[in-house]
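Changelog entry

Holo records now carry the ligand SMILES as an explicit input line rather than a separate metadata file. Below, a converted record for adenosine-5'-triphosphate, shown in the new format.
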Amino acid sequence: MQTTLALSQITKTFGAVRALDAVSLHLAPGERLALLGHNGAGKSTMMKIILGLIDADGGEVQVMGAAPGSAAARRATAYLPENVAFHPALTGLEQIGHYLRLRGEPASKAPALLDRVGLGHAGKRRIGTYSKGMRQRVGLAQALIGRPGLLVLDEPTSGLDPVSRRDFYALLDGLAADGASILLSSHALTEVEARTDRIVILSRGVVVAEGRLEDLRTRAALPVTVQVIPPEGGMAALAEALPGGRPMGAGLRFEVAQAGKLPLLSRIAGLGALVADIEVEPPSLEDIYSHFSRRDGQ
Ligand SMILES: Nc1ncnc2c1ncn2[C@@H]1O[C@H](COP(=O)(O)OP(=O)(O)OP(=O)(O)O)[C@@H](O)[C@H]1O
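Structure line, unchanged by the conversion:
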């Protein structure tokens, strides 16, 4: 398999703290991977090792086949820190022009980069006047310089409103479609559910779960929630015909194992006019996340 990023048995300790313990991870071109984990799980430590900012104590890391921090790896990698900071007195164009020159590219590419992140209209304004979402976009424009093969994004959407988040992920989709690999950390579970290909859950420095969301869902074997709503005034009749549910809002709530879902649905279908509506909710990423984290003693 072609690999953009390969971590093999990485270990890192800070004094008595084992921040990473035999962590292995591979990322293919065009793949979007979400790194999830509680505060202090080891996400930033992993990113710093990938970027070559700190060394691992043991194990092996390869970024595009090169050692992290080497010139080849740095050329191929872009990084967006969680709290991105720019000089407030510079305009967007000046800031990106500066980064372009640092990368050995002409500043004349700045307008196209700002256009790409939806900031073309604000390039001549000082960054001090930008909203948080706009500053995050400047960060992404900076990360796009030189068409990186690997993007490392530390909580890229924290503090962004829902529309800015959607736009941000749409941009990432485009980059991934062009072949860039994306490693992003996040605490916003529901948004990574829809926008990434694979999930890695880190807990106390250990990978406790890894895979496509569907695989994790199957492995966790968590119950499905079925909400049955009676017509107005029909709650008592529904509860009598369908015992075992918990009253919740305007209906009755059932939690059943995957295998019990279809039998329950067919019973409900036989109730005719006693049922006005029905909602089936699979376990959320939050449920799956706490299931795997708890298994690690959290
Ligand atoms: N330079 C350091 N010196 C000592 N301990 C450190 C250092 N850097 C990280 N740690 C410890 O290593 C562990 C992992 O920290 P890390 O910052 O990687 O977690 P994280 O998953 O990024 O957390 P968060 O979601 O809060 O950003 C924590 O216990 C942290 O206190």
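Spot-checked after migration. The chain has a mean pLDDT of 90. The domain at 5-86+147-218 is CATH 3.40.50.300 (Rossmann fold).
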